[in-house]
TrEMBL record:
<dbReference type="Pfam" id="PF20151">
    <property type="entry name" value="DUF6533"/>
</dbReference>
<keyword id="KW-0472">Membrane</keyword>
<feature type="transmembrane region" description="Helical">
    <location>
        <begin position="128"/>
        <end position="148"/>
    </location>
</feature>
<feature type="transmembrane region" description="Helical">
    <location>
        <begin position="62"/>
        <end position="81"/>
    </location>
</feature>
<keyword id="KW-1133">Transmembrane helix</keyword>
<feature type="transmembrane region" description="Helical">
    <location>
        <begin position="219"/>
        <end position="241"/>
    </location>
</feature>
<feature type="transmembrane region" description="Helical">
    <location>
        <begin position="186"/>
        <end position="207"/>
    </location>
</feature>
<feature type="transmembrane region" description="Helical">
    <location>
        <begin position="93"/>
        <end position="116"/>
    </location>
</feature>
<keyword id="KW-0812">Transmembrane</keyword>
<protein>
    <recommendedName>
        <fullName>DUF6533 domain-containing protein</fullName>
    </recommendedName>
</protein>
<dbReference type="InterPro" id="IPR045340">
    <property type="entry name" value="DUF6533"/>
</dbReference>
<feature type="transmembrane region" description="Helical">
    <location>
        <begin position="160"/>
        <end position="180"/>
    </location>
</feature>
<feature type="transmembrane region" description="Helical">
    <location>
        <begin position="253"/>
        <end position="273"/>
    </location>
</feature>
<feature type="domain" description="DUF6533">
    <location>
        <begin position="29"/>
        <end position="73"/>
    </location>
</feature>
Amino acid sequence: MAFGDGDLVLLDPAFLPTSSFITHVQVSCQLSVAALLFFDSVITIDDEVKYFWSTPYSSAHLIYFSNKYIGLLCSLGSIYFRPFHATEPLCELFLLLHTSGLVTTLLVDYILLLRVLALYQGGNVKKVIWGLRLLYILQGAVRTFLLVKTRLYEKIAVGAYSMSASMAVCGFLRVVPQIWVDSYWTIPLCFELTLAIMILIKAIGFWSINKKKFGLINVLVQDQVFFLVLVLISSTLQILANQPKIESISAPYILGAIGSPLILSTIGNRLLFHLKDEAERSSFRSESDQISTLSALEFA
């Protein structure tokens, strides 16, 4: 919601019904996302206990619990800041919670990157490994820069329907250029596509030997393709949700909720579960002997 200049922007009371409707839609959408994340955390508790409660602490634990609970807590926190009791500090905190979407996508991208790097360990492929790492850092830095630049450009403001500010909402003084929004959501899609291509190239080499033998490779490819499709859907919906020509009042918020990057955190958790399941089964086959890099350590 874009406002005019001023510390406290007075809004037309005639806009109050529309604002109330928007707030209701936002809260409903955010509650749906939070409910989905909570439901996922419940149904995966068995795998969580098996792989993360009864095993020695590692970096995978930090990635898993950060990926799982940052999205859940931030989605719940966003619901609290929706009603008409906005102040500038609360609006700033609300925007800070929105950075959880960036954190979630970066965490899941990092999980996928580790899977790809595991395939490319060994041999004369150091340039490929460093290239992928550099690409990950670069895309994360660019997205962070765009996010910070957007927040500074928008200039957060508080809009009230009376001088007492008893009914106030968060808003912005300026609307950001559309190219910034499109770029922000296109970058992760390009990175995921690159990872998918890299893992497919390596997988073809393994499949040419014996496709059935390398079950762990099959899991990697399936997860990568599945997640790429989800990123495509998420990015597309976010771009559509931020189109200025959408006439429907509720459509941007509904599209944004369906394409919420927080939902991708559920996929990130399953990436770890799938790999650990397959690595556990592979320990009884000759697969781990054929590919030393796909060891329990690599996928811990």
